[in-house]
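#struct-help
A.M.: can someone run this one for me? Single chain, 397 residues.
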Amino acid sequence: MPAAHPHALLVILFVAAMAPLFNELPIRLRLPLVVLEILFGIVVGPQVLDLISVEGAIRTLSALGMSFLFFLAGMEIDFASLRGPPLNLGAIGWLFSIMLALLLTFSLYAAGIVSDPLLVAVALSTTAIGTLLPILRDAGELDTEFGRFLLGAGAIGEFGPIILFSLILTGEQSVALRSGMLVSFVLIAIACAALALQLRPPRVVALLSRSLHSTSQLPVRLSMFLLGGSVVLADSFGLDLLLGAFAAGSLVGLVARSPEAEPFRHKLDALGFGFLIPIFFVTSGAQMDVAGLFSNPNALMRVPLFLLLLLVIRGLPAWRYRRSIPTAERYALAFYSATGLPLIVVITEIGKATGRMLPENATALVGAGILSVLVFPLAAMTLRPRKRERSESLLSS
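D.P.: on it. Structure tokens below:
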């Protein structure tokens, strides 16, 4: 293992600070912050400047940033407000996606292109709602009707693949045993949510409110403990760690949904988007094997194939929204829904480690995931009228 760069964290923090400043330059190019962090990560990583390597403490911080990304994504999903068409259409759309993915990947298996069609199908059926969250927030989409439909599609597109991925990686366990563990985990999460909603002693609520503005920061510390506990519990049940992070975020979001909890949510946003999550995106860029991608013709040729499959598999279900949103917004929804990265990275890493995925396919899938984050949100924002323009048009009418 190569020696760790002594100032790698400082380089990452510098890049994270420069990324938002880049968009303040007097140029017409405005890239989503996530895209800039990934691109800058490629530049400072081993492929270009070789200023950082993702190992040791940096790898731990990156994993914590990814967990926090899914934690905040879980917090953002208000299942009560998404009840009805957003969640129903999202669920039906994802079921259509996974069936289409299985059909296409088994065709690739018959052609000798992939070795484990089920694993590749799960990777191609993901939507990176955690990655899209900062982009949607900066664009002011989270409080729009379009945002509700996108959150519904993204929540199912993130949660469904995590569950399916946890089930297919049975190892020495049977599918029935793994399913039982998954059901047990979900029941524990539901019980914790019910308990948290029922038990709100005034003295405890007052203590949490008071300590939020003191050095103890008790609500934040309790949230971090819940995040860690959920991740450990998911790991103990043999499930994907991101499922635990998402469940912890959903629980905290359920309890902290009132307007009085806004300062608390702002503190978690500051911790996540101000520190941990940029580390994950910068290191994701640094870990992209650009040289390996271009030196392997098989992997390079499969990048556009997998990118197209991402768009087809996750984008086609947008046609079901024809009665709910206008045509231009359906195209934007298709591009947003086809954006995938974190779960693709996790699936390909485990697929390579277990020998279930060909190395060139793993490299090509990650390359397609990176390109989807770079290209698809920009295409969606181009197709989707800006919020300000929509407001002005409403006022003028």
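A.M.: thanks! The two ends are 64 Å apart (CA to CA).
D.P.: also worth noting: Residues 8-396 form a domain with the Na+/H+ antiporter like fold fold (CATH 1.20.1530.20).
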